[in-house]
Amino acid sequence: MSLSTSMPVRLAGCGKTFADGTRALEPLDLGIAGGETLVLLGPSGCGKTTTLRILAGLEAPDPGGRVLFGEAEVTHLPIEKRNVGMVFQSYALFPNMDVAGNVGYGLRVRRLPEAERRRRVAEVLEMMAISELAHRRIDQLSGGQRQRVALARALAVRPQVLLLDEPLTALDAALRERLRVEIDALLRRLGITAIYVTHDQSEAMALGDRIVVMDRGRVAQVGPPREIYFRPANRFVAEFIGTMNLLRGELRDGRLVLPGGALPLAGSEAADGAAGETEVLFRPEAARICASEAAALVGRVRSAQFLGDRTRLVLDGVARRTVIVEAPGRREFRDGEAVGLTIDPTDLIRLPD
Amino acid sequence: MLRGGTSRRGWGFWAQLAFTLLVCTFLILPAVLSMLAGVTANFFQGLSSGLTLKWVVQVFELYSDTLLLTLGIALACLLVTLLIGVPAAYVLTVRQSWLTRLVEEVVTLPVAIPGLAIALALLLTYGGFGDFRQSWAFILVGHVLYTLPFMLRAVMAVLASIDIRTLEEGAASLGAGFWTRFFTVVLPNAKSGILAGSLMVVTLSIGEFNLTWMLHTPLTKTLPVGLADSYASMRLEVGSAYTLVFFVMIVPLLVAIQAMARLERRAKRTRPLREEALPQAVAETPR
Ligand SMILES: Nc1ncnc2c1ncn2[C@@H]1O[C@H](COP(=O)(O)OP(=O)(O)O)[C@@H](O)[C@H]1O
Ligand SMILES: [Mg+2]
After folding, report:
1. B283 occurs within a structural domain
2. B281 vs A94: CB contact, 8 Å cut-off?
3. Most buried among A44, A200, A309, B29, using CB within 10 Å?
4. DSSP string, A227-279
5. Are A79 and A52 contacting, i.e. CB atoms less than 8 angstroms apart?
6. Chain A residues within an 8 Å CB radius of B172
7. Tell me: the pLDDT tens digits for B23-78?
8. Which of A11, A22, A54, A214 to mutate to test the pocket of ligand 1 (most atoms within 8 A of CB)?
9. Among A122-126, A327-331, B260-264, which is the least confidently predicted range?
C-alpha cells in the first residue's frame, strides 16, 4: 500500500479559547512538510491534543486562525470531509462491529464496491499482521491488538494526513517499545504526513523528523530531535528533555569558577573576555570520570545507582546544585568517594539569553 | 466445601433459609390462591368443586376490547417514547450543559410525582377538549409522561458507559456524516439500553393504574382499571380469572427485563484481554 501524494499541512495563527474561558492554545504557526512525521511533545495539559483536534477538524480555531491542507483552506471543513486518519488514545473502536467491520467502516461510508472493500480490508489487515483477527469482536482483543486495529482502520481510507494522539500510552512498556519501532517503519514506508502527539520524550526522539516542544499553550521549540536535545532553545526545553545539569559560576580567564574547580569553556566564549556570573548546562553522558589530579572539577559521590551498562552518580560539591553524571564500565563507587570530572567544552550547552 | 458441606452449615444458615422461605410463602401465597380461584368452579366450595376455564373465557368475552386497548396503548406508548426518548437521550448525553441537565431533571420529575397528581394536572389543562378527553389518546399522553423517564434513563446509561462522543468522532474521522454516524454507530451501540427501556415502558404501561384510573372513561379502560372494575362488580371467580390473565401477560415481560439486566452486566467486560504474542507487522515487508 502506498499513498500517491504526501500532503503538506499548515496552521496559521491558530489559537484556541474554550467556551469556559480556558486558553488552551496561544496563536500558533506551524508548517508540516509532505511526508514528514511531526511530533507534538509536552507535559500533560500543554495543548497537544487541542492542536491535533484543530488539525483534524474536531475543534475550530479561534477566529483568525487558518488550517491549510496543501493549497486548500480547510478551516471550516468538518472532520468527515478532511480525509484524515485518526488514532485516538482510547482507540474508539466500534464495539458493535468485528475487526474487519471496523477497518472497512471508512470504505463502507465512501460506498466502495463490496469486492474492492474486501480487498482493501484484507490488504491493511495483512500489513498490520492481524489478518487472523478479522472476525474477532473488539472485546476479544488485547490492548496491543486494539492499537493495531485502530491504526489499520485509520490507514484503510488512505488518508492525506495521519493524526495520532498518544497511541501507545495505554500499553505496557515492553509492548510500547515494540509498537514504536513498527509505527516508525510504517510511517517511513508509507511516506504519509503524520502528526504524532506524545508526552514521552523517547517516543518523540525515536519517531519525529521534527519535534515541537510545547509549554502551556505555546511552542517552546521546533526542531529535529538532535537539535532539541543538544541545543535547547530555553530553560523549559532543557529541563523537560532528558536530564540536564546546571553549572552557575563566575567567568574568569575563559574558565567557569565553581565550588569544585574551574571549568574551561570553548574558545569563542573564552575569547570574549567577558566576566561575571554566567551559567552553562551539560548532559550526564557528556562528563568523563577521571582521577582527581587530572580533573577540572572534583566532587563527592552522594549516591550511586548501578544500571547494568552504566552507573548513574549523583555528585555533591561540583556546583551549587547536585550534578548527575554517568560512568560506563565496571568501576564501583562508594558514597562519599571523591571523583574527578572533565567535560569537553564543545559538549557544554549555553542557553540564549 | 463438598465433603460434609451441609454439616458445617451452622444453625444461622438454616434459620436464614427458613426465614426467607417464610417471607416468600407469605408474599406468593395470595397470588397463587387468587389465580387458583380464577380456575375454581365455585370458590366458596373450594377446589373440591372442580377446575374450570369458564371464568377465564368469560373474562375474555367481557374484556377483550380492554385487552386490545391495553396492548394498543402500550405499543403506541412504546413508539412515542422511542421516537422522543432515544434522540433526547442522545442529545442529553452528548451536549452536556446546565440546560440539558435542567431538561433531564424536569423530564425525570414524573417518576417522583404521584400518578394522581399528573392525571389531575392533565385533566385541569386538557379536560375541556371533549374529543381528546374522550379518546384513548388522553390516556396515552399520561402513559408517555410517566414512562418517558425510564426510556431516557436506560438509553442514557448505555450511551454514557460507551463514551459515545469519542466513538462518533472516530466515525466522523472515517468520513461518516451525522446521520450515518447516528444509524451505524449510535443506535447499534445503544441497542441494549433501547431494548431494556422498551421492556420497561411496555410493562409499566400495561400495569399502570393510578393515572389511568383518573383518566379513563367507560369506553377507554385498560387492564388494571378493568381489574378493579371486575372485583367491584363481578363474582370473585371472574376477578380472579382476570388476575390470572394479567399475570400471564406481565410475567414474561418481567422475566425478560431481568434477563436483559443480566446480559447487560455480562457485556460490561470491555477491558482488553491479556497480550498475546503479536506477530511482527510491517518491519519485515520489503521497502
Ligand atoms: N473541551 C474543553 N473545554 C475546556 N477546557 C479544555 C477542553 N479541552 C481541553 N481543555 C483544556 O485545555 C488545555 C489543553 O488541553 P489538551 O490539549 O488536552 O492538553 P494535552 O493534550 O497536551 O494534555 C488543558 O488545560 C485542558 O484542561
Ligand atoms: Mg492529550
Report:
1. no
2. no
3. A200
4. HHHHS-SSHHHHHHSS--EEEEEEEETTEEEETTEEEEPPHHHHHT---EEEE
5. no
6. 58, 78-80
7. 988 888 888 888 888 788 777 777 777 778 878 887 788 778 888 888 899 999 99
8. A22
9. B260-264
Count of other CB atoms within 10 angstroms of residue A88: 21
Please give the distance, rounded to the nearest whole angstrom, from the Cα atom of residue A32 to the centre of ligand 2: 20
Ligand 1 within 6 A of CB of A15: no
Residue A161 CA to chain centroid, in angstroms? 18
The CATH number of the domain where B37 resides is what? 1.10.3720.10
- Alpha carbon distance A341, A315 (integer Å): 10
In a domain, B9, yes or no: no
Which ligand ends up closest to the CA of A166?
A: 2
Question: Up-side HSE of residue B227: CA atoms within 13 Å toward CB?
Answer: 21
B277 within a domain of the structure (yes/no): no
Q: How far are the Cα atoms of A104, A126, B190 from residue A107, in angstroms, in the given order? A: 5, 17, 23
Rounded CA separation A24/A14 (Å): 11
Residue of A1, A105, A110, A182 to mutate, testing the B interface (most B Cβ within 10 Å of its Cβ):
A105
Q: How far apart are CA A279 and CA A250, in angstroms?
A: 9
ipTM above 0.90, yes or no: no
Asked if A109 and B180 come within 8 Å (Cβ–Cβ), the reply is yes
| H/E run at residue A299 | strand A297-306
Residue B23 is assigned to a structural domain of this protein:
no
Count of pairs with CB atoms under 8 A, one residue in A, one in B: 113
Task: Please give the radius of gyration of chain A, using alpha carbons only, rounded to the nearest integer.
Answer: 25
Domain that holds residue B68: 29-268
Q: How many residues does chain A have?
A: 353
CB contact (8 A) between residue B273 and residue A140: yes
Of A48, A50, A53, the one to substitute when testing ligand 1's pocket (max ligand atoms within 8 A of C-beta) is: A50
> How does A89-106 read in b/e, with b if 16+ C-beta sit within 10 Å?
bebbbbebbbbbbbbbbb
Q: Is the CB of A142 within 6 Å of ligand 1?
A: no
Out of B172, B274, B283, the one facing A79 most closely (by C-beta) is B172
Nearest CA in chain B to A103: B174
CA of A47 relative to ligand 1 center, distance in Å: 6
For residue range A116-169, what is the model confidence (pLDDT) as tens digits?
999 999 999 999 889 999 999 998 998 889 999 999 999 999 999 999 999 998
Q: Into how many domains does chain B fold? A: 1
